[in-house]
Design goal:
211 residues, alpha+beta, Nuclear Transport Factor 2, Chain: A, five-stranded antiparallel sheet, 7 helices, 5 strands, globular, disordered N terminus
């Protein structure tokens, strides 16, 4: 809103022949700097999350169960799990009772981070190269990366990163080889609920999460 007012004011001055040639430069510079900051922040986030996940999953002093637990902690901190959880439920969320919602919110972090662990198996320990980054809407940035493999083609990973009002960055989606877990699970949840109901879905999530 503030930036819009700046531009309108500058345009009015220019129309009355009173504006100096540089009247709009501060607003444009601030916008460009803000865009660069969001993109740089998203790239740094993707690199850090990948590095932290690698450390968690390759810790030779930890058991397999401990590695998974450490990895889940990394993702729980780096992903916007509340946003992702609501998206995956879609319209079904409106039909849930308070008890069902509480149950879902309790199990979802363990369930989804375990799902992502399977995706990360392919990229852990491999060098990451940032290929591109672009803004999607006002808050999100897609960071396109690839992980090189010696005896096969690179693994392509897109990170959808959102900058919160606090300035922190959170992952909204991680798309491995063109597959979005968010979209796949949203469709899967919807179809399962239509056939079996919400309680059956919650039972399944608890079972798959190992709770």
């Amino acid at each position: 809103m503030f930036m819009s007012r700046v531009r309108i004011f500058a345009a009015l001055l220019a129309a009355s022949s009173m504006a100096p040639a540089y009247a709009q430069e501060p607003a444009e510079a601030e916008t460009a700097e803000s865009e660069v900051s969001r993109i740089d922040g998203a790239i740094a986030f993707a690199k850090a999350l990948s590095a932290d996940a690698t450390v968690a999953l390759t810790d030779e002093t930890a058991s397999d169960a401990e590695k998974l637990a450490n990895f889940q902690t990394v993702l729980a901190d780096g992903l916007a799990l509340e946003t992702i959880g609501k998206f995956m439920l879609g319209e079904s969320r409106r039909k849930m009772t308070e008890e069902q919602t509480v149950r879902y919110e309790k199990i979802f972090p363990d369930y989804i981070t375990k799902q992502y662990a399977e995706q990360f198996d392919e990229i852990v320990g491999k060098p990451l190269e940032v290929k591109d980054a672009k803004e999607i809407g006002r808050r999100d940035v897609i960071v396109r990366t690839q992980f090189e493999r010696k005896d096969d083609s690179p693994i392509l990973v897109d990170w959808r990163v959102r900058q919160l009002k606090s300035g922190d960055h959170k992952g909204i989606d991680i798309i491995v080889q063109g597959v979005s877990i968010m979209l796949v699970k949203r469709e899967e949840f919807s179809a399962f609920i239509a056939t079996n109901g919400i309680d059956a879905l919650l039972d399944r999530l608890e079972q798959e999460a190992g709770v």
